[in-house]
């Protein structure tokens, strides 16, 4: 099927890493998105997969909206590269 392009999934781990590096806490993100801080933490650290329902649920949409308002850009997609300054992965 010529002309069709596969749309890449939103990279929620990268969203969280960028927001965190810009000073947004996981607690503040959780308050706005409704996602649990523990889930945000494991996704940010890429120690667990993103919950499947984030791709089409309120939490995922809220996180994308939060990112766009906070950073002023469209949310990154899987495969995008963003230099995250000062980001240190905390175990």
Structure description:
This protein has 91 residues and is mostly helical. 44% of the residues lie in helices and 0% in strands. The protein has 4 helices and no strands. It has helices spanning 12-21, 26-33, 37-44, 58-71. The longest helix has 14 residues, at 58-71. It starts with 11 loop residues before the first helix and ends in a 20-residue tail after the last helix.
Descriptive tags:
91 residues, mainly alpha
Work out the helicity level.
40-55%
Global outline:
globular
H and E string? HHHH
Distance from N terminus to C terminus (CA atoms, Å) equals 45 Å
How many helices? The count is 4
Radius of gyration: 13 Å
Residue-averaged pLDDT: 84
Strand-pairing-aware structural class? mainly alpha
Question: How would you summarize what this structure contains?
Answer:
This protein is mainly alpha-helical. It contains 4 helices and no strands. The protein starts with 11 loop residues before the first helix and ends in a 20-residue tail after the last helix.
How do the strands and helices of this protein lay out in sequence?
Layout: H1 12-21, H2 26-33, H3 37-44, H4 58-71
């Amino acid at each position: 099927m010529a002309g069709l392009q596969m749309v890449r999934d939103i990279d929620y781990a990268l969203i969280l890493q960028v927001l965190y590096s810009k000073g947004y806490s996981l607690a503040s993100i959780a308050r706005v998105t409704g996602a649990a801080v523990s889930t945000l933490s494991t996704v940010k650290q890429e120690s667990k997969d993103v919950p499947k329902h984030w791709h089409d649920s309120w939490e995922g949409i809220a996180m994308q909206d939060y990112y766009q308002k906070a950073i002023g850009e469209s949310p990154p997609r899987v495969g995008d590269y963003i230099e995250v300054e000062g980001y240190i992965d905390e175990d």
